[in-house]
Every structure is written in structure tokens, then in C-alpha cells.
Design a protein that fits this description.
alpha/beta, Ribosomal Protein L25, Chain P, Alpha/beta knot, 7-stranded mixed sheet, 14 strands, 26% strand, elongated
């Protein structure tokens, strides 16, 4: 996935300035100075061609956003900048919604995570199900989780969020349901005939004051009938999205958009 330069604007209607935006770990912000990682330093110099004296925006994942003047290369080799202003900016959705996504093949999962962060998802739980094709074992599981967490971070750079949604380690459906029995859980199921997502929201079938809601989405092929029965036994509510069958990379994002439109800050 390519690195985004993520320009942001500051200023009023007149004299608007576009600033590139970067993530810096809070431990690398000290004494009013910001120390950029080697990867970000290369991107600043070689890709964006920024130099000492140029202004950028920095966020540390805790809600703070900093206006930073680049100073140049430090003795350690990385770029360093001087903080000239900072502001606590909360751009999080007031309604907490977590995506529990059946792991999709190829780059689909990367795209789902990126777009989920942009929409406003609070956290992401990759899910292993009966029909999951992707096989994750040993070190490969940790590597994939770290990659997905980096995608979440990069998506925050682009969309302006100052808190980075956590991508949890992959888990199986049984374990997830057992750990979240007391939480509101929605399960997207294309064969559901009794409830639609619209009905659940309209008729308050899940408590809005109990958050986060967890949105379960199957991988390619969806959930099996046995998995749906198990989820219902554990308190999950199966819902449909209409008469058409949606791809896994479409269904969860559409459902999240609907929920966050009705209960969050979209629209």
C-alpha cells in the first residue's frame, strides 16, 4: 500500500495553507521537539522534498496534533522538528462501533481496514471462521497483525483522526462470542428474513447506551448456518442488508456507514 502525503489545511478562508501530516510516537516528542522515524524522514526528504523551515502537522495517537517546523537532520540521522503550536482535536465518532471482520483474501483485508478507519470504526477484530481461506500460523499471524495496524495508522494520517484504531490479533468466532456475550453484537447474514439493519436501529433492538456495538461480517462465502445458530445462542442478533448479496468488502463498510449515519456523526 502506497504511503500518503496526507496534506491538511490550516488557516481561515484567506491564506489557507496545506500541510503534510505525519504520525510520531509520543516517546519521540520531547522538550518541544519532534524526532521523526527513519521511514518518515526518508519520506519527508526524498518523496515530499521538504527541508528545514518547512511546516508540517504531527499527531501522536493520543488526540494531540502539533504544528511543527522542520529543523533538518539530527546527529542520529533522522529528521527533527520544533513544535510551534499544538491543539487537542477530538475527531472520533461519539458512537463506538467495532468491526469484527472475517479475514478476506489478498489485498481485500487491507482495503477493508483502511476504509473502516476512514468511516470512523473504533477498533477492528480480524476473525477466523469456517469459510476463511487465509491461513495464519505462528509468526505469520503477528506479521499480518502488525501490517494491518500500520494500515490503520496510515489511514489516520489521511483522514485526520488523531487516535489510531487498534487492530486486535486474529481470533476465532467461538472465542470472540464467548468473550463478548454481554455486549451488543450484530451479525450480517444474507439469509436473515426476520430483521434488517434498519429495523434493529429503528426499533431499538440493541441498547444504544451500551457501547461499543460489535459488527460481525463473514469472509468470502459468508457465515455458515451453524455459525449463525451459535452466534444467536450467545446473544448476537443476525440482520440482513436487503435483497442483494454483497461482497465481504462491501457489506461491513455499508453497514458501518448506516449505523454511524443514524447513531454517530456521518452525514
Amino acid at each position: 500500500m502506497g504511503r500518503s502525503s496526507c496534506p491538511q489545511t490550516i488557516g481561515g478562508a484567506k491564506g489557507v495553507t496545506f500541510l503534510h501530516r505525519f504520525f510520531v510516537n509520543s516517546k519521540d516528542i520531547e522538550d518541544q521537539q519532534v524526532w521523526f522515524s527513519p521511514a518518515e524522514s526518508r519520506h519527508i526528504e526524498r518523496v515530499l522534498r521538504l527541508r528545514g523551515g518547512d511546516m508540517v502537522l504531527v499527531f501522536d495517537g493520543s488526540g494531540w496534533e502539533y504544528q511543527v517546523e522542520l529543523l533538518g537532520r539530527a546527529s542520529s540521522g533522522g529528521m527533527v522538528g520544533q513544535i510551534v503550536g499544538k491543539e487537542y482535536l477530538d475527531r472520533e465518532v461519539p458512537f463506538k462501533l467495532s468491526l469484527v471482520q472475517g479475514i478476506a483474501k489478498g489485498e481485500k483485508m487491507d482495503t477493508i481496514i483502511q476504509k473502516a478507519v476512514e468511516v470512523g470504526i473504533d477498533s477492528i477484530h480480524p476473525l477466523l471462521t469456517e469459510r476463511t481461506v487465509v491461513k495464519l500460523e505462528g509468526s505469520k499471524t503477528k506479521q499480518r497483525q502488525e501490517r494491518w495496524q500500520t494500515i490503520s495508522q496510515q489511514a489516520c494520517k489521511q483522514c485526520g483522526r488523531n487516535r489510531i484504531p487498534v487492530v486486535y490479533p486474529p481470533t476465532d468466532l467461538v472465542s470472540f462470542l464467548e468473550q463478548h456475550q454481554e455486549q451488543p453484537v450484530l451479525m450480517l447474514y444474507e439469509s436473515e428474513q426476520d430483521y434488517t439493519l434498519r429495523q434493529v436501529i429503528r426499533d431499538h433492538l440493541l441498547p444504544c447506551d451500551k457501547q461499543p456495538w460489535y459488527l460481525l461480517v463473514g469472509p468470502e462465502g459468508g457465515f455458515s448456518a451453524a455459525e449463525v445458530s451459535l452466534a444467536q445462542e450467545k446473544g448476537a442478533v443476525p440482520v440482513g442488508l436487503g435483497p442483494r448479496i454483497l461482497r465481504t468488502e462491501t457489506a461491513g463498510l455499508l453497514a458501518a456507514g448506516i449505523i454511524l449515519y443514524e447513531l454517530g456523526d456521518l452525514g
